[in-house]
Amino acid sequence: DGYSQLSAYERKRLKNITENAKFFAALKLHEVSARLHQIAAKGQSHVTKRARPKKAEDETVRRRSMRLQRVEPSEVPVLETLAQPAAESYPQVPAGPLPMVPEDQGGNSELTEDLLTTWMRISEVKANGTEKCLCDVKRYQDMLTSMVLSEENVRKVVKYRVCSMAIHPSESILFVAAGDKSGQIGLWNVNCKSEEGAHVFVPHSDPVSCMHFSPFNPAHLLSLSNATLRCGDVTRAVFDEICRSEESLSSFDFLEDNASTAIVGHWGGNVAIVDRRTPGTSSELSADIGFKRTRTVHVHPVNKQYFMAAGSVDVCIYDVRHLKSRGNKPVSSLKGHTKSVASAYFSPVTGSRVVTVCADDKLSKRNISLFLCPCLFLRRHNNNTGRWLTRFQAIWDPKREDCFVVGSMARPRQIEVFQDTGKLLHSFSNLDCLGSVCSINVVHPSKNILVGGNSSGRLHVF
């Protein structure tokens, strides 16, 4: 052996190396390698070589700016700019009346007719009027606690971010409308548990920033986008055009109980008076109220000659009887906020209170008896919704004078109810069914029902 001095492991290793060498020798790999080289060389002989491009000059030209060359920009050819990502655009809706046909259907179907028939039927029943809750706060809290959210009461009603909602006053059928940022309006019969309970219509080309069922005739759903104010009339199955403006529209409210006239706010700061009874789609009056931006307008529930505008740093109350094209002075101003106000609304019974939401992360409630407007409370509240969420709006419970609802950035996700003293009464939440921020909320005028809309087009019904 000659390797007796090696250990057993080393002898075993040498044996393996010897056996492996014999095995590879038997495979004759060197002959295979030579054959492959021969084939490769033969294939390359038939390949024609590409001519090398002519070599550029070795000497590079040093770049100098136009400033150093003392050349005017106009004398230099403008280079083509890089392609920019296209802005998000949605299908343009033509002017004039539009048929009430769902987006995903070319004509009226039985399912759509069922939805519209339900809307028409519940609109024929006269509501008993808003019942005011006169119970004490403890009983009201118990009532809020009894309101729950179930999986069957969560539905994606529109495709994009919810910007506005309206709830039908019917006490027999829960019927909700939601408008999104693309101009879609989704109608949802919550009592219909099947998928056919909701349909989407497209009467606008821009975000639907404000919607109301007519208090005089709930068969009419009025909706407002940047360019138009429309009335969806279910009795005729058409979206009529009430007002069209070159200036972007932001919000509206009815000036009379019969909903024939409305005050309309413009993103540019002006307000306009619109009369539905006059022919044409132009406003009756456009008034400069001194605002750079008007986000919401709201009419006093008792003294309807007064309306409130919000959007600049301050919130102001005006008398519609004294409006003129220029030089309008407010009846009263509500000071205190330091950034843009997202919303301001009168309390629903007497109108003696105002709740505002501001980008300075504050909620405020004020007593405006005789328009003396002292601030009763100013509460810290996280209103930093960012770019992708609709801004919060605090809305009063229409059944009470002293409680309002607002979205929340808190986790777990929730919708908050405050008393006018600033006390948090209740937080609506559900770990299984509510996992997003509900910026827009609406409360039923006579029943214990709350609907919250999020930024993916989903509605949650408590």
TrEMBL record:
GO annotation terms (biological process): regulation of DNA damage checkpoint
SUPFAM superfamilies: WD40 repeat-like
An annotated Gene Ontology molecular function: DNA binding
InterPro entries in alphabetical order: WD40/YVTN_repeat-like_dom_sf, WD40_repeat_dom_sf, WD40_rpt, WD_repeat_DNA-damage-binding
Signal peptide: none
Keyword terms: Repeat, WD repeat
Subunit and partners: Interacts with CUL4A and/or CUL4B.
Protein family per UniProt: Belongs to the WD repeat DDB2/WDR76 family.
Name of the protein: WD repeat-containing protein 76
UniProt organism field: Ciccaba nigrolineata
